[in-house]
Amino acid sequence: MNTTERGRALSEELNPGMEDALNERYGHLVPGMAEGVVDFAYGRQYARDGLDLKSRYIATIAALTALGGHTKPQLKVNIAGGRKAGLTQQEIGEVIWQMALYGGFPAAINGLNAALEVFDAE
């Protein structure tokens, strides 16, 4: 299985319909973008050996939180993916709150609000 196929299988498991949604929204502007995201993010990064999927989501949620409120859409997608990978609501909350030290209190509070939105939709 090549990285695109591996990425497609993993992205469909964690974020069903993501590739189609990216294609629909951006495909006319950036042909191949959706497949590139699937190949690189899921097939070459999330599917790598060396870290389990939960740990990768912890790192992703932490980074997106520390980057600040402008990452809210991506943060919500990755919180949902983290839940599917086995993270508990409490673990996600703790990861986000830890980022108050690095991204500041506003970034952490924005992250917690994004998490609550995802948890409410579950």
Unreliable parts:
none
**Roughly how much helix do the residues carry, as a percent range?**
over 70%
Reading the helices and strands in chain order gives HHHHHHH
What would the principal axes of the Cα set say about the shape? globular
Structural class: mainly alpha
Radius of gyration: 15 Å
Domain Carboxymuconolactone decarboxylase-like: 31-116
InterPro entries: 4CMD/NDH-1_regulator, AhpD-like, CMD-like
Protein name: Carboxymuconolactone decarboxylase-like domain-containing protein
Describe this protein's structure:
The protein has 122 residues and is mostly helical. 74% of the residues lie in helices and 0% in strands. It has seven helices and no strands. Helix 4 (53-67) packs antiparallel against helix 5 (72-84). The longest helix has 17 residues, at 105-121. The protein is globular. The chain starts with a helix and ends with a helix. The model has no long low-confidence stretch (mean pLDDT 95). InterPro entries: 4CMD/NDH-1_regulator, AhpD-like, CMD-like. It holds the Pfam family CMD. This is Carboxymuconolactone decarboxylase-like domain-containing protein. Residues 31-116 form the Carboxymuconolactone decarboxylase-like domain.
Descriptive terms for the model:
single chain, 122 residues, mainly alpha, 7 helices
